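About this split. The held-out portion is used to measure sequence recovery: a designer receives only the structure tokens and must propose an amino acid at every position. Recovery is the fraction of positions where the proposal matches the reference. Here is one held-out target exactly as it appears in the evaluation file.
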């Protein structure tokens, strides 16, 4: 039992240390700290992404309105066909 525990501690600790010093570990630690973007290029890129996201939201809103309008037109057409007298 002690041998297994020792192996888990050695390998688990080694993997944890390797992960901590990897780029992924550094990115996670920066995310946890919640620091500001590193440089102006990151801030500019963030601003660009936010602007793109706002544009996509606007377009999605317009498409939703168009879809609602089309659904209402189709519903009116179906009601008119149901209410029309048979030929």
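Reference sequence for scoring:
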């Amino acid at each position: 039992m002690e041998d297994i525990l020792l192996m888990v501690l050695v390998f688990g600790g080694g993997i944890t240390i390797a992960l901590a010093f990897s780029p992924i570990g550094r990115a996670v630690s920066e995310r946890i700290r919640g620091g500001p973007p590193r440089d102006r290029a990151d801030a500019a890129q963030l601003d660009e992404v936010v602007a793109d996201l706002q544009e996509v939201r606007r377009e999605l809103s317009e498409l939703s309105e168009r879809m609602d309008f089309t659904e209402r037109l189709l519903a009116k057409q179906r009601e008119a066909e149901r209410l029309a007298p048979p030929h």
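Annotator remark: The CA atoms of residues 77 and 83 lie 10 Å apart.
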